Every structure is written in C-alpha cells, then in structure tokens.
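batch job 7 of whatever, protein = Sodium-dependent multivitamin transporter
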Amino acid sequence: VSHAHVPPPVNSPQSEADTSMHFSTVDYVIFTLLLVASAGIGVFYAFSGGRQRTTQEFLLADRSMTCLPVSLSLLATFQSAVAILGAPSEIYTHGTQYWFLGCSYFLGLLIPAHIFIPVFYRLRLASTYEYLELRFSKSVRICGTVTFIFQMVIYMGVVLYAPALALNAVTGIDLWGAVLAMGLVCTLYTTLGGLKAVIWTDVFQTIVMFAGQLAVIVVGAHQAGGVAEVWRRAQNGSRISGLELNPDPLERHTFWTLSVGGVFLMLALYGVNQAQVQRYLSSRTENEAIMSCYVVFPCQQIVLALGCLMGLVMYSRYGEDSPLDKGYVQTNDQMVLYFVMDVLQDLPGLPGLFVACLFSGALSTISSAFNSLATVTMEDLIKPHFPAMTEARATLLSKGLALGYGLVCLAMAYIASLMGSVLQAALSIFGMIGGPLLGLFCLGMFFPWANSIGAVMGLAAGLLMAFWIGIGNFVSRMQTHGVPILNGTAILDTANATTVVMTTLVTSLTTKPRLTGLKAFYSLSYMWYSAHNSATVVVVGLVVSLLTGKDLTPGTVYPVLGTLLFFLPERYREKLCCVTPLEDKVTQTQTITSTLH
C-alpha cells in the first residue's frame, strides 16, 4: 500500500533537505542566460525581416516557416513544465505502463496530417474558428472562440505557477521572482517578435529541454551503476509493466486507455487546438506542414522515453522509500526536483540547466498561448466588427492583445496561488474543454448533414457532460479519502492538452470492489475524457441536425464518408454526403472568404 496520501509530519526534516539543496552562482547564471537568449530572439525578429508590420507576419510568420522549426515548436508547445515534472513521478509510482502512450502518437499525428491540415491550409484561415463560421454560422464560431479563450486563460496561470511553486519548495528560489521573470520575458518576446520569435525561441527551448533531461539521466544512471543496473532494480521492484490488455474503461492506465484514448487527446491537441494549427498555417507550403507532423513523431517518442527513463533512474536511487514518504517533499512534482538537486548537487551548473529546462517547458507553452489568444481575439472577435481597420492599426492592436494576455496570465498565476488544492481542478478544466472542441470540429468536417443548431447544442451538451464527469470525479474522491487530495496527486500532463488530476492512491493489491451507477461513471479513466466528450458532441449534434435540416458550404467537409461508403451508388452518396473533393472548391472558398471579410 502506498503511503503517498499520508500528510508528512509537521516537523518534517525539510531543514536537512534545504541545507544541501540550494543554487550556486553558476546555476543562476545559466538560468539567466536562458531568459536573456529568449528575449534576444524576440528583439531580433522585432527589428529584422518585415519588422512585424503586418498581422500576417505578426500572427502567421508570413507563412514562410520551414518544416524543422515548425515541428520542434509543435513539440515544445506540447511539452510543458508540468509534463517534465509529471511523467517521471508517474513512472516512479506506478511503473512503465504509461510508456504505451507512445502507441497513440501514430494515429494522433497521421489524422491531423492528412485530414485536418489539408482542410485548414486550403481554406487559408488565420484562426481555426473561422472554419466554424464557413461550415456552420457566426454564432458557432463565437461559441468556439469563447470556449477556447476561457480554456487557455485558466491554463496559462497554472502552467506558469506550478513549476515556480515546486522550485520554490525544493530550492528556496524566490517564488514570485521566478513567476515574474518568466511571465515578463515571455510577454516581451511574444509582443515584440510575433509568431516567428515564438517558433524560434521554441526551437532553442526544445534543445535546452533535451539537454537538461539528458544530463540528469546520464549522471543519475552513472551514479546508480549503469543503465543495466537501473533496469535490473526497476524489474526487481516490479516497475517494468507488461502489456495490460484489460478493456475496462475505469482502469486508469491500460494498453487500450493509453493507445486508443490517447489518440483523442492527441487529436484535440494536434488537430484542432489553435496554438498548434497556427504553426501548421505558418508553414511555407501544405507539404511542409504535413512533414512537420511526421518530424514531430520521433521527437515525441524521444521526449516520452526521456521522461520514463528519468522515472526509472529515480526508482533505482530511492527504491520504495521515496522522498515523499520521508517527508522531504510535499507533492509528487516536487519529488522530481528533489531528485535532480540530490543527483546533481556536486556538479555546479547542472541543476541550473535542469531548471532552465523546466522553465523552457513553461515558456514555450505560455508563449504559444499568448500568440494564439491574440490571433483568435483579433480574427474572431474584433476584425468581423471593424472590417475597414487599416493593417498598421490591426497589427498594433494584435501586439496590444499579446501584451494584455501576458498581464492576464500573471494575474491568473496569482489567482492560482490562492486556489490551493483546487489547482488540479483548474488543470483538468483544460482537458475537459479540449474534448468538446474536438467534437465540434469533427461534427463539421465529417458529417455533411450537421447544421449550426446541432453544432451549438452538441457543444453545450459536450461541455455539460465534461464538467459533470470532471467535477463529479473530483467531489467523489474528496468524499472517499476525506483528505485534501493535494498530498496524494500527481498532476500529469498528457499531450499538454489534457491535463487531469490523478491520485497516486494505490489501493492494496486485493481486488477492487466493482463500482456501480454514478460512482462508476465518475471513475472513468481520465484518458477517455477526450473521446467520451467529443463523442457526446457528435451524437447530440447529429440528432439535433437530423431534426432540423442541413446547411453546407462546399469544401468545408472532408469526404471521409464518401470514401467509406464507396460501395453505394453515386446518387445515394450524393444524398448522404456532399461528395466535393477538397481541390475544386478552393476557388469557391476564396470567394466565400472574401465576402466574409
């Protein structure tokens, strides 16, 4: 039985930990260099190239990016600081089952590459939600936009605050100093350099992330006596999991939840999330955009492997008596930092590198949030009402929006600090909203007879379902354990999009009682949230649409059904799904888009 949820003794030997764990000057220098370099890239793009004078350049990098920077940037956005801290502690506590998430990356990247990207790219959109207007109506577009803004604003604050809090607990580095430094530097380069700066700082930060994690694994494995020894200890401690083929959707991690449920997480992120789609749209050609999806794939497998190896190295160092049980740290995400400081304490500069790696994760996530929020607000909420706005003024306004969202983010970080154990709930809101938005886009793209009334009703039903499960789960766990669950949770960030709370309360090895009724409904594995909520949107949307008739703009539907039902005669297919291939209507859409603006 894990004792993870027993609160540590009040007079825990934190002081012992603190004496050995502190930053040297070299660490601070490395850490400052990261921030300075990031800011420098922003300033460079503010004064080079087109100098960010048009919205096209500021928000879409002039559609001139090549495949490598785009793919590294996609990777960095997806790999936040919460994930860098979450994955190793997940492996340390539960074993390597989580590694099977890698299986979901195949479909999770192939489907966006060949279905979502061609549709978005050929419509020449700036905001994904513009698609919803072309396909349904203005009201659906505004519903989608508002949902996304709500999701991102809540998430930003937490992503900024969580790593700073863990850092403060373990190394005693100043909490608000760290938050302000990150928030301001990030706002600076996003506002000055636009999407070009965001993408190139992401590339730089990805390299720092790899370096930081590699340093810890290499030094840690060396101290443990080599990789073979690490693996042997993990096997003895039964941390190496086999294929768990149990189809039960209430099981937290099985092969099916990770490889099938994971696909929907990946789609919510790589298929329709504005922050990611904006990267595809900034590519030079459609093929570059598709290639960047393929390049992300091996990189993601490497990132996942690094996180998992770090967890195993951690296990070989501490075995069953974790720093958490001993009371050195209070939560799981602090455990990883404690381990890093413990392993690297005699090597000045390396703890600083890891912290830089952690903050790179946070910076890359937040900067894409700022940029995508500015884009969405500009394209979906402001431009339609002021069609005559000059390009110079629109660009200035976009920069103002990026700056404004930067300050909102700092305010949200402050609110996050007041939330305490509700922090996990805030993180899971991100996951709750990703699913319904994915459902909304699928409804539009794959089902020609869906209409705007169906879309609005579907989205509402999906969000309702998401919050019902999410909040029900949270409350029912609070009742069962009766302790503030903060002490026993690992915040694990999967695909950055679906961040959901997971308790590390491992029940004893006896069989669990079968849950029934609502209790079973609430204990659905968090990996299925995205699939379940997007399915709700599609089903409700289709039922309502069938009752109210169809409306369809040619070229906004991907002819999946036409391809699947190839055996039906042509006229039935015409009836069921408008069989317009994507190509012939690029011209039609351009006329539609020009009439919209």
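notes: The beta strands are 489-494, 498-503.
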